[in-house]
Q: What sequence folds into this?
């Protein structure tokens, strides 16, 4: 996928939803989402900076400061500057930005792993004899509220609507196999 296009899309979605919430006066909205950020920091270099800046401009937020934190050199690219900022390696600001980036990576990896597990489970359920559309829907609903990697017993699954012990046992086997392949 095009990294720059994905970044533009994420930034535009974030601010498009903000504009929709602020723009509709007849709708009750949570005030926690209404405040614009003071700045945007993206993971990457000059290309990611340009993509985020373009998306902000397309949302009529051209004055919002945009920064990009490049991985290898740990340089901070700023909108409107030719040369990157190089923070002292032992400064609190430097460590804060690294922590911010690492936390964003952890969140993204965790989210994508969760999506992959759910999609893997969906396709594995399709292969189990005795799991049709109704049972598949029940199982996916059950697992959407849990982490797929959590220990689940056949008794728990057999107690779900429309399930029985035999099919529950097959599902448990598939889940164990899926965990072992991770």
A:
């Amino acid at each position: 996928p095009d990294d720059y296009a994905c970044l533009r899309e994420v930034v535009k979605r974030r601010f498009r939803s903000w504009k929709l919430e602020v723009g509709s006066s007849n709708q009750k909205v949570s005030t926690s989402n209404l405040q614009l950020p003071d700045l945007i920091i993206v993971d990457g270099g000059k290309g990611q900076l340009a993509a985020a800046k373009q998306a902000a401009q397309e949302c009529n937020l051209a004055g919002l400061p945009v920064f990009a934190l490049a991985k290898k050199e740990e340089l901070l690219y700023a909108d409107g500057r030719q040369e990157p900022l190089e923070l002292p390696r032992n400064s609190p600001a430097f460590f804060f930005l690294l922590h911010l980036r690492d936390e964003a990576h952890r969140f993204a990896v965790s989210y994508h792993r969760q999506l992959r597990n759910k999609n893997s489970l969906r396709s594995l359920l399709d292969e189990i004899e005795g799991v049709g559309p109704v049972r598949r829907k029940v199982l996916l609903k059950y697992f959407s509220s849990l982490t797929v990697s959590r220990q689940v017993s056949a008794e728990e699954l057999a107690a779900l609507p429309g399930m029985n012990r035999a099919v529950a046992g097959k599902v448990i086997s598939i889940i164990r196999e899926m965990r072992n392949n991770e």
User: Anything to note?
Assistant: The chain has two domains: 3-86, 111-180. The chain has a mean pLDDT of 82. The longest strand covers residues 40-43.
